[in-house]
Amino acid sequence: MWGGTWSEETPSQLSSAKYRSAKSVFLREIPFAPSLVKRNIEIVTPAPAGSLHGNRITALRWQRFLKRLHYRSTVSEQWSGNACELLIALHGLRSYDSIQRFKDAHPDHRLVLIMTGTDIYRDLQNSPKVVMSMEASDAIVILQPAAMDSLPERFHQKVRVIYQSVKGVKRKSPPAQSFLTLVIGHLRAEKDPFCAAESLSFLPSESQLRLVQLGKAMSPEFEERAVALEKRFSALS
Q: 3: buried, middle or exposed (CB in 10 Å: 19+, 13-18, 0-12)?
């Protein structure tokens, strides 16, 4: 099954309280001007308002966390040019212009860069703008610790790991006749999106595993491959 949706990954061993605590500690660690409480923070994400792109959902979730911590914040696609004490930018490449404009206008104001998977596993190798965004930032957030291995060592002192989180849902009983596995994420090369589907061929014929994969194909080639895989495994079921 292939469809368009989005979800954030959550390590099961970490609770929502720990996520909130991690963000709170992180904000306290950054050497801001005294007392940012109730001051203005702007969150920049290249994903348009109303979309279900991961960067937009992440920005809105960060905004909710900041509200719980008593910060005022707005979400925009590009830096608005309005005065703010802190800019949080998602995506080092696509938010590059906002980052540079903000630092040119307010060199003493703090900037946090949240690096996306696309930044780390694709654009960092191909675009100097990602490195320039990292240089301009006062702190860098990555979403899982192994990403540190892909970053230039000179930036490691700026980096903090904040795991992605998701609002808890009511647990339902699993299917009785199969072992249901769900893979969520848009079909893009840097995600190795067909790994799970291709692995089905290694299962024994008596396996009861059922795979459901949700995500938008980001190229005609990937759409054709997804359709072909669905037909292939539907014929075997």
A: exposed
Are 22 and 144 within 8 A, CB to CB? no
For 101, the domain range is 16-161
Q: Which residue has the higher pLDDT, 20 or 155?
A: 155
Q: Which of 105, 135, 161 is the last residue of a domain?
A: 161
Phi-psi region of 192 (alpha: psi -120 to 50; beta: other; left: phi over 0): left
Tokens of residue 225, six digits: 């491959």
Among the candidates 161, 193, 225, a domain finishes at: 161
Q: For position 29, what pLDDT does the model report?
A: 55
Chain segment 166-189, per-residue pLDDT in tens: 777 787 777 778 888 889 888 888
How far is the C-alpha of 67 from the C-alpha of 57, rounded, in Å? Answer: 15
- Provide the token pair at 101: 């404009």
